[in-house]
Amino acid sequence: MVGENIAENILNRLKVSNKEKAEILFLVKNHMKDLKGDMREEKVRLFIAKNYSLIDKLILLRQADFRAGKDGDGTTPTNKKWQRIRDEMIKENTPLTI
Question: What is the pLDDT of residue 98?
Fold first, then answer.
């Protein structure tokens, strides 16, 4: 939550639109979600369905954060998991809005 609060203060000073601010704050808040990959698949599926419009951006942010780290070669294991689940949901015609 600290990062989210810092980002919100900066975005307010920059007078970013409410829509952009909500998107950025969502990304900051959730970029570490399921970092260890132990989130149950059902919870990941629900999270993806609830936030489908931002999932691709979130995956990209998580990948950039991972690559910026000392061991950042390749794709994060949790991104692989999330991308697989997202792709399965699309194949299954799962409703991607709630």
Answer: 61
